């Protein structure tokens, strides 16, 4: 979705805002046809072309729509520059205040979204950061990023990924995307770094870092690993957790003399 957002913002603001100059009346609406999808921009307080600062700005409950994708914010801004070959190009896009990005299957929320076209990265920041796609929800405290050319999404600061009773927490979560059988963009691997915690209905697993194979639903954790199920606990340097079957394996680490330790509490009989 984030890649689609980047493309749509460029199309909307270059084609849509670029149609006029000066301030537009309240509830301004611009329409541009591109292929089969019309591009529409609305803003309660008008749309401006600030020539000296080289900015296009849509203010007041601004909304940009193309097909099934809608970007809503208090303000939408495009910064442009002159090209060596003539003409101009947009190099930075910003959605500010109550940002909500919605497509047919996805929804992203934040206070601010910035798309750096040169770096091909979009960054969401602010309170209540979240990205929901199908059954998956990712939240973060500091930022949500999507690096288009690298096909990476990064959640920073108290990052959490949730799916149907399963949860992964870490300081930083990095999602690697690949192409699905129908050509769709899908998450294939998640790297977790710092204070990693995997929670299922049956157990809680702690570690310093981990890798989650999304397609196989298998997580591998390393570094001071603890697997806790009820009053029982396994301790070691490396664990493999199958979130589909619920089977966890604690393995010796690479350190010399590394061993696996377990604490098992017998079930108490009720008198």
Automatic annotation (TrEMBL):
Please name the GO terms of the biological process aspect recorded for this protein, alphabetically. lipopolysaccharide transport
Organic solvent tolerance-like N-terminal domain ranges (all copies): 41-128, 142-246
What is the recorded name of this protein?
Answer: Lipopolysaccharide export system protein LptA
UniProt source species: Thalassobaculum litoreum DSM 18839
Task: Provide the alphabetized UniProt keywords.
Answer: Signal
Q: What GO terms fall under cellular component here?
A: cell outer membrane; outer membrane-bounded periplasmic space
A Pfam match is LptD_N
GO function terms (MF aspect): glycolipid transfer activity
